[in-house]
């Protein structure tokens, strides 16, 4: 289904859901940079990018943190293992810059309130921390 196939009412509903979620982040958190689709900030020791899509609607969290130097083969094995056991998102490493990241997408089928937003965000951070600690150890 493309955006043009949605009724005007549904397009407006989805746009409002995303606008509300984005507003929660802007009100509750210190945003360091932003553009029309994404907000960038730091949270609990991670660089955090939250992106929004009105079409679907959805909210995407990407958490990143610098990695201590470790063996590439071991890290790739750990990432593969983490992804096998991760239902909500995916783990990745970038050895060129020494960075770990975790990415999760959450559908916004209804408006979120502040407590639900933090519940989703903190679960993402917990999964990112689990992955980061496995890689950094």
Topology:
Layout: H1 8-28, E1 33-34, E2 38-43, E3 46-53, E4 58-66, H2 72-84, E5 89-94, E6 99-107, H3 114-136
Antiparallel strand pairs: 1-2, 2-3, 3-4, 4-6, 5-6
Describe it.
- By secondary structure, this protein is of the alpha+beta class.
- The chain has one domain: Yope Regulator, Chain: A, CATH 3.30.1460.
- Helices cover 42% and strands 29% of the residues.
- It is built from three helices and six strands, in the order αββββαββα.
- The radius of gyration is 16 Å and the shape is elongated.
Could you name the key traits of this structure?
Yope Regulator, Chain: A; elongated; 42% helix; 137 residues; 6-stranded antiparallel beta sheet; 3 helices; alpha+beta
